Amino acid sequence: MAANPSNIFPCKLLCFFFLLIVVALASSENSESDLASLVAFKNDVNDPLGALTSWNATIHFCNWRGILCSKRHRGRVISVNLMSLGLVGSLSPHVGEPIIDFNRLSALEGFIISSNSLEGDINFISYLTNCTDLGSLSISGNLFSGTLPNSIANFSSRLTFLSMARNKIHGTIPSGVQNLIGLTRLVLEDNFLEGSVPVVIGKLSKLQEIYMGTNRLTNEIPSSIGNLTLLNRISLGENDFVGTIPQSLSNCTNLLALDLSSNSLSGSIPIEIISISSISISFNLSHNAFTGSIPTEVGTLINLKDLDLSHNRLSGQMPTTLSSCIVLERLHLESNSLEGEIPGGLSALKGLQELDLSQNNLSGSIPTSLVDLNLISLNLSFNRLQGEVPARGVFKNGSAISLRGNANLCGGISLLKLPPCPPTDFKKERHFSNLWKILISVLGAGFICLTLLLCICKFAYRRRSLPEPQPLVPLFPDSFLRVSYADLAKATDGFSEANLLGSGRFGSVYRGILDETRLAVAVKVLNLEVKGASKSFISECNAIKGTRHRNLLKILSVCESTNFKGIRFMALVYELMANGSLDPWLHKDYAGEGGEPNSRNNMNLSIAQRLNIIIDIASAVEYLHHGTDSIIIHGDLKPSNIFLDDNMTAHVGDFGLTKVVSNIHDGSSSSMAIKGTLGYIPPEYGTTNKMTKQGDIYSFGILVLEMFTGIRPTDDAALNGQSSLHQLVSHALHNQEMKIVDQIILNEHSDQKMQLKLKNCVACVLEIGVACSKEFPKDRTVMTDVVRELQNIRKAYLVG
């Protein structure tokens, strides 16, 4: 019997409404689940900058900052983007469950929490495997640690972007990475990953960018990387790779940038690799052990901007085909064994800004055609060049060129202090008669002989009547190490760039290990071409000589000699400070690769460490002012001149601007042309040429304020309209505001009682900084009182 159509329609309609109810209930349940996960996240992280103030009950969570919901499925979170919000906290699992239950956020397509200060075991990402639509995952620039879990093999096949750079992740790269077949960008740089790059990485056929630099990866670069034909960026620098560059890399014909620098790669540079004409951004094989000549096929790189083959063992002549690389902006071939002449065809590189051919065996003359280039920097030092130095183009700027270590050069601008070139045109000589020529020669020879005789007599007389001449370098105790130029060159691997710790106004500092004692040292090499460098050298020697204090950087030796090419050489040898200067502990850089800004690194100082360091500095300055027979004025107190040993004890260094004042005179000042560093120079130095103890106290005060606010005195943006760091802090203290204090300090304690104690401590320290940096010198606190007050503050905080 046929069904009545009039009875069927109500049944279908009833089923339809039932389905709608089921979908609505499921959607509501999922929405509440997503909300609960986000609320749990907010409750378990610190938000010192107030970035998550919109995360409250008055605003629908789909409108919260960093949250994006699906338009199709209202209330389902599809993206969490909390990049660079200053968030602090741990995402470690609690007894098997994470702080934020990512299993609930199953609709997630993007999860970005990079550039914060989040920490915990990296294993928390395992909970994202339930997010089957996940396309982007970035946790870069945080403090996550632990080993990469094998569970990454279970991530969504739709994942295209995976970034875990700049964390503290260690262990090996799991072979399960081969399952991420949708990846186009893989960013693992700046961690502690070790072992081999898994061969199965060659299965990620869609990969376009790979960043694994600055890790501890070893063994050979897998040849399977050549299967990734879509690659346009490869960054494997600063690892421990060995062997040769795999030939299969030539299959990557879409490559734009290649960085294999700072490894232990060897062999010749493969012609097939240097012939990848698509490379246009950078080609960097520096700091390896490549041998042989530079292939002439380098001329294939007609779109390349940056070529760096420096610090290898390359030999032979510079290929003339380099002139075909007409887009080059940087060309670095220094520290090899290249020979022959500099190709004149380099003049075709009209966009070239940096050219460094130093420390090779190049000979011949400097091509005059180089004057036609708009070079910003030219380094031809330590070769075997000869002949006249041009005086046009970049050669007019003495600070832009370096020609040291080329004994047979002549001419050029006066600043180079090269000998004049001998005349070469004899055609216009006057033709004297033979008689006149003979007469002039005889008279000239007689005059010269008479002059020499008088000089010898005068010299003999002076030797009898004058005391022995004093050496340029002040005498040091016999307990000081005796080192030669050869010792220092060997200790620093020929003053290699790899051992360069930093550069300043008057020279560069290198890390080294003395051969006989195996002592780790810092070698400060003076750049004698810079005006005032010799004076700085003598000032530093005079200042440190005879001083003994635990918080002064200890000088181990001095060296005044000549290098292997007969050029004058001056250097100071110090103890090597294991933790470097104070500056990077206070201020963090934000430049990195991988397409994301770099976050603050892991060099954070606790308040206890800051108290210890500032007391160390104050003790050193007090000693300089009151602890010797003479008053020693440092003249350039700033974070980069404070050095930290392996126990984080501070040592005051860099006495290049120091003045020693005799107590016989006024005992408080010294005349000089005022120098120093902008932001730390006291205001009175602008109207007087007197260096004073009060000037040091002002610089110390600014240093105190900088240490506890994290604000540079020259950072106009951070000064928020105030004229100086002193004014900014004074205003904040007057209004009892603590927002200027470095957030790392304020986040150190979550306990309310400890928070109050911490804030009181910081306020007292800032008051000392303000008192030391007052405008008028007579109003500034003396260092003896500063040391005593700081010690009392530390005792009250740690014990009271």
Automatic annotation (TrEMBL):
One GO process term, biological-process aspect: defense response
Query: Which keywords does this chain's UniProt record carry?
Result: ATP-binding, Cell membrane, Glycoprotein, Kinase, Leucine-rich repeat, Membrane, Nucleotide-binding, Phosphoprotein, Receptor, Repeat, Serine/threonine-protein kinase, Signal, Transferase, Transmembrane, Transmembrane helix
Single GO molecular-function term?
A: ATP binding
Which membrane topology term applies here?
Answer: Single-pass membrane protein
Please give the GO cellular component terms listed in this UniProt entry: plasma membrane
Which family does this protein fall into?
Belongs to the protein kinase superfamily. Ser/Thr protein kinase family.
> Which protein is depicted?
non-specific serine/threonine protein kinase
Organism the protein comes from? Dorcoceras hygrometricum
